[in-house]
Amino acid sequence: MKALILVGGFGTRLRPLTLSFPKPLVDFANKPMILHQIEALKEVGVTEVVLAINYRPEVMINFLKDFEDKLGITITCSQETEPLGTAGPLALARDKLADGSGEPFFVLNSDVISEYPFAELIKFHKGHDGEATIMVTKVDEPSKYGVVVMEEATGRVERFVEKPKIFVGNKINAGIYLLNPSVLDRIELRPTSIEKEVFPQIAADQKLYAMVLPGFWMDVGQPRDYITGLRLYLYSLRKKSAGRLATGAHVVGNVLVHESVKIGEGCLIGPDVAIGPGCVVEDGVRLSRCTVMRGVRIKKHACISNSIIGWHSTVGQWARIENMTILGEDVHVCDEVYSNGGVVLPHKEIKSSILKPEIVM
Questions:
Q1: Averaged pLDDT, 99-113
Q2: Residues 36, 25: contact at Cβ < 8 Å?
Q3: Are strands 320-322 and 297-298 parallel, antiparallel or unpaired?
Q4: pTM of the prediction?
Q5: Which of 15, 153, 242, 323 has the fewest beta carbons closer than 10 A?
Q6: pLDDT at residue 84 in the model
């Protein structure tokens, strides 16, 4: 089987992290976002992954070459010279996806994090006579999304309703699809939306089915959702593979710590924290609801909550970082500095407090 991952453009909503790496290579729970997806695809027998990309493809390919060998999976790029939306990239990669086998192929949005129930999706898809299956997830406020209206018994999709004013359902597109090669015949090589142009057409022909995604789901393409996604991911990990989570008197709730991390005395870490490789956490540090990426040093008695600390940054003694502060790569926060929602671009030194949310360039 094959898969296409829609990598897309510049990752503007996740800046300043995406100023250093393309969004799919930004760490999530201590490994690049896209690797969570590729590993799950490999588990269900996918042998080739095509990345649909229009921004820095050479960075992606150089990075992922290592994983090709480790995972035993072929990873190639299909590069757009202009943005082609969410359907155009399928037409561009037609030769890679339609190999004559007739096997369906996966299509994923690169910033979706879930438990990736791909085996169940394959079984469901092969059990109906449609052309395409989309995964849907339940939301509390459907009026903010495009809602998928479907037959509960069979899963057949009847129609899509964009941001409904009255309740028509609570299921939305989760950005995970399994498509027969015949779907490619419906797509022209031009900027096209799979959600607004292709799927409604297949639904009108009564050939589109939806499967409700079991477990959690989050689009982690912006900081607040990234932090929420981390909480959901760690909670899921607790149920499925609790041995991978940190334990000890200094740990509260679900915490993921790379084996190379050094943690000092008197710290309190958690809940919902990920600490990446090579980090140093000095004595008396307090961390909650945050991600600390590779190579970070957090000095004595610093306090970090609801924030993302980018690669190789330093947080000074008694510093306080909170309220969705995002530090880009190689940012150095001096001792006793306070950041209330600061968004700091890479390679900066912060000597004075950031008292209200603002971008530091």
A1: 86
A2: no
A3: unpaired
A4: 0.87
A5: 153
A6: 80
